[in-house]
């Protein structure tokens, strides 16, 4: 599959989360997303950057800040969110895994946030420095530290799964994309 075919396939399967996607299909589309974001960011910088200069009367002199309010990069990323998620699901299917594994790091981030918010929230509802306050704070940390460790490793695991070769033959998600010729 070529670069152009990959982009065309991913856009034609915009909402298709079933089936399988070959490695070139996923990685060429990923390359398209990276290159597109670079171009969109450059366009945002060229069209929407504003420089603000502040002159101070003290010895520090002047300071300048650049503010980018450009929407091009954000709109580009938003437009490609669903097709990227769909091709990631199909790529996971190609390796014999559920597509939900592509969401593994995001689910862990949500879980870590919930542990932190509810654990600290419960601890703060007790008297400061009391035994229940310490118990819930320590329990929160006891749950949060391994969750953060897994959170650091999980994107690497998902990346490794996305680079795995196709499962030979037909699996529960459909035929091997290398064996199907259109």
Automatic annotation (TrEMBL):
Keywords on record: Membrane, Transmembrane, Transmembrane helix
Keyword Transmembrane: yes
Keyword Transmembrane helix recorded: yes
Transmembrane feature ranges: 26-48, 68-89, 101-127, 139-162
Annotated signal peptide: none
Domain of life where this protein originates: Bacteria
Protein name (database record): DUF805 domain-containing protein
Organism: Ruegeria marisflavi
């Amino acid at each position: 599959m070529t670069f152009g075919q990959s982009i065309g396939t991913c856009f034609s399967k915009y909402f298709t989360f079933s089936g399988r996607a070959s490695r070139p299909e996923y990685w060429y589309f990923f390359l398209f997303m990276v290159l597109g974001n670079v171009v969109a960011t450059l366009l945002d910088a060229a069209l929407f950057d504003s420089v603000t200069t502040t002159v101070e009367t003290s010895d520090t002199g002047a300071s300048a800040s650049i503010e980018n309010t450009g929407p091009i990069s954000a709109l580009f990323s938003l437009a490609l969110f669903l097709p990227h998620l769909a091709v990631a699901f199909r790529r996971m299917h190609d390796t014999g895994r559920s597509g939900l594994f592509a969401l593994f790091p995001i689910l862990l981030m949500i879980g870590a946030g919930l542990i932190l918010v509810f654990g600290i929230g419960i601890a703060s509802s007790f008297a400061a420095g009391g035994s229940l306050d310490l118990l819930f704070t320590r329990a929160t940390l006891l749950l949060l530290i391994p969750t953060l460790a897994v959170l650091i490793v999980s994107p690497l695991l998902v990346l490794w799964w996305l680079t795995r070769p196709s499962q030979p033959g037909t699996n529960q998600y459909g035929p091997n994309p290398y064996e199907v010729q259109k």
